[in-house]
Structures are given as C-alpha cells and as structure tokens.
Amino acid sequence: MVLRVLVIGSGGREHALVWKLAQSPLVKKVFCAPGNGGIAELAECVPIGVTDVNRLLAFAKDQEIDLTVVGPEAALLAGITDAFEAEGLAVFGPNQQAAEIEGSKSFAKDLMARYGIPTGKYRTFTTAAEAKQYVREQGAPIVVKADGLAAGKGVTVARTVEEAELAIERVMNEKVFGEAGNRVVIEEFLSGQEMSLMAFVDRETVRSMVISQDHKPVFDGDQGPNTGGMGAYSPVPQIPSVVVDRAVAEILEPVARAMVREGRPFRGVLYAGLMVTESGPKVIEFNARFGDPETQAVLPRLDSDLAEIMLATVRGKLGDIEIRWKKEAAVCVVMASEGYPGDYRKGVPIRSLPQSRPNCIVFHAGTIKEGDQLVTAGGRVLAVTALGADVGAAQAAAYEAVNQINFDGAHFRRDIAAKALAAEKK
Ligand code: AMP
Ligand code: GLY
C-alpha cells in the first residue's frame, strides 16, 4: 500500500472509480474532488471544482498525490492533464489536444473520414440556413448534433424535416447549448443495436473492456428526451463477440493509431458509442473518458487491479498488462430526481438506503450529506448496480434494491436490460 490517489469528479462514474481503486492493494488513500455523499464513505472529499485546474494542481502537489484519475470531460478539455504533466505529476486521462476527439464532433468526424473509420455520412455547417437547406435535400429521419459539449443532450434524432429544422434553429440561433452550437453536424440516421465499447489506450496499445449498453431516453421503451443515461448493463449478449472484435480492429485500434499520426497520442480511456448496423459497427460518438452510467456496470465486472492498469497506462506500459474480467453480468439502474432531464429540485431527503453488499452496490451520482441526512444534489441521484449469474439475475437483484430506496419524486426506468432478455427469448 503505497499510492495516494486523487479522483476528479462527483458522479456515479467517480463513485465506481473510487470504489474499485480503494480495493487495490497498491492504494493507501483516496481523495476525491469534489466527490459526493456516497464517495465520502470511501474517500476524503475535497471541495475543489473539476475545472479549477490550478487549485487541483496545488492540492495534488501539497498532498503528494501519486496518481490522479480524471472522470469528466470538462476537466480534460480544460487541460488538467497538460497542467499536471508539466509539473511531472502522473495523471490518467488524455491531454487537451487528444480530448478533442470528444470535445469537437467535427474534429472526430473529420478524423474518421481521413482514416476510413466507419461512421454515418455527415456534413458540418456554421450557418443555420445552409444546415436547413442540407436537411431539406437529405430528407428524414436525420440527426442534428451541436458541435461542442452539451452533457449528452445536444443530439436530436429528427423523424421529420420540420423537427430537424427546429433543432437547428434551437442549437444555432437560440443557442440553447451556448457556444457548443456555433457549428452543427448533420448526420445520417443509423439503425440497429447500440453498444458502448470502452478501452484503455496507451498510444497505439488498446486493451478493450467488456461491452455495455446505455439507455439514453428518460422513459421506458426509449421514449422521451435524452438524458445523460438512465441505466446500463454488461455483457450485451445479443451482440456477438465477432462484432466486438470487428469494432476493436476496425475502429478502436485504427483511431488510436490515427491519433498518434495526428500528433495527438491518446492516453486514458477511449469510449466508442457504436451502432451495430447491417453493414457492421459504426461510430456514433467518441468520448475521451469512462462513460456514465456504463462504468457503474463495467467496473464491477473487472477482476484485475484498476490502479495497476492505470499506472501502466500512464507509464507507457499498458502493453505489458493482461486484463481479466468476471463472468457475472451487471445491471445498473439510475434513480433520478423529479423533472430530470429538465429542471429539478435538490435537497430532497433520501430515506431507506440499503447497505452496499459485494453483489449489490448503490453508487451515488448526485447526493450530498447535510449533517446526518443524505439528500439529493443532482438530476441523476443514485446508480444502483447488481451482479448476477446472467443479465436476468442481475436485473432482478438491481430492481429489488431499487424498490427498497425511497425519495420524493424519484423516477427510474423499469426496462433496463430488457433488450437483452427479449433477444434471449427469441
Ligand atoms: P450522442 O450524444 O452522440 O451519443 O447521441 C445521443 C443518442 O442519439 C445516441 O445514443 C443514439 O441513440 C442517438 N444517435 C446519435 N447519432 C445517431 C445516428 N447517426 N443515428 C441514429 N441515432 C443516433
Ligand atoms: N453514457 C454516455 C456517456 O457517458 O457519454
């Protein structure tokens, strides 16, 4: 036990990272900035914001942190990795230039075009008039995406040309996502099953994780507006392993090589959001970090030591590491605040929280301790994860735990992992 680790972030993903890192025999102490009410049970929380790079750096130096792990994209795009590396500190997460693969959809799209990586046909526009003209030419369904960061909410899958034009108007003229809407990407509609494929990447070395599937729309049956993600499960048994192998060979590995060639070598977690179409897996988006809530379903299945993998990545030695996974399945159900993904109330007391057990972990996504009382502090409040022999067993265990939890206005999807079970029946 030697390492002092600092995790940056405050969501369910960071709780899962802290939970897994704290189990490592290499780790002596974990700090989390700023953390949340659940993380506080495992780590010392420090009240510094995720983009307050100067204060985070001062804290890491002062506390002699051996490894900093960056959760959210905002910190990566604020250049936290560059700042820490300049001071000789070990940090897990890509630098600002490499994180552009998430920070700019047009950069990611152009990169894929240059290197022949399968993705939907697209065009990028800087004026609403031209974007609308293109949409009228192409017809619907069609997808409208704000170019910059929009917390997973900048995408409209438009069923009609009118809906697409309205989305363009909102993004580019009303600027509902601010500067992220200065440019818009209009993309071909892809149909099929979605999968999230994350990998540890150290320049050209790619070690993929087990796949998972997110649930973006707020309501059952994929109805309603998109959220940050209402639940996830892993494995995704209806997606054959040959498809995953193909995605690694045709997408992740070439992208890792492309980033090196472009002078933006990637070190950290690269996340590919993929659509499994009839002509194979195609990229919907890249993220430069762990997914949320995918991480809460994937890390409980990791058998290996996460701290060891991260240190190897940071030191350019990922190629020396083999990563082992558990056979069990994991299902994560997100419990959200009333009103989310729109406006929601904070400070709602959370009653009757079951104790986490080895096979059932209540990750906190948006909570805070007020004295002795745990209260809500975000749109996504809890990410309840259970392990089981298969997806069905994990699903049953996750919902059993969810049903024991209670806070006013709590809502959650009742069909997380239902696609896997439906495919099994067929
Ligand atoms: P993103 O934020 O880019 O992951 O997009 C959010 C969601 O919109 C995705 O998870 C998909 O369900 C959907 N989506 C994005 N792009 C496309 C596309 N080209 N075709 C169909 N659905 C898409
Ligand atoms: N769950 C999707 C994301 O983390 O962006």
TrEMBL record:
ATP-grasp domain segment(s): 109-315
SUPFAM superfamilies referenced in this protein's UniProt entry, alphabetically: Glutathione synthetase ATP-binding domain-like, PreATP-grasp domain, Rudiment single hybrid motif
UniProt keyword Oxidoreductase present: no
Gene behind this protein: purD
Catalytic activity: 5-phospho-beta-D-ribosylamine + glycine + ATP = N(1)-(5-phospho-beta-D-ribosyl)glycinamide + ADP + phosphate + H(+)
Pathway membership, UniProt: Purine metabolism; IMP biosynthesis via de novo pathway; N(1)-(5-phospho-D-ribosyl)glycinamide from 5-phospho-alpha-D-ribose 1-diphosphate: step 2/2
One Pfam family named in its UniProt record: GARS_A
Protein name in UniProt: Phosphoribosylamine--glycine ligase
Molecular function terms from GO: ATP binding; metal ion binding; phosphoribosylamine-glycine ligase activity
Keyword terms of this UniProt record: ATP-binding, Ligase, Manganese, Metal-binding, Nucleotide-binding, Purine biosynthesis
Top-level taxon of the source organism: Bacteria
Listed EC numbers: 6.3.4.13
Species assigned in the record: Polycladomyces abyssicola
A single BP term in Gene Ontology: 'de novo' IMP biosynthetic process
Cofactor(s) annotated in UniProt: Mg(2+); Mn(2+)
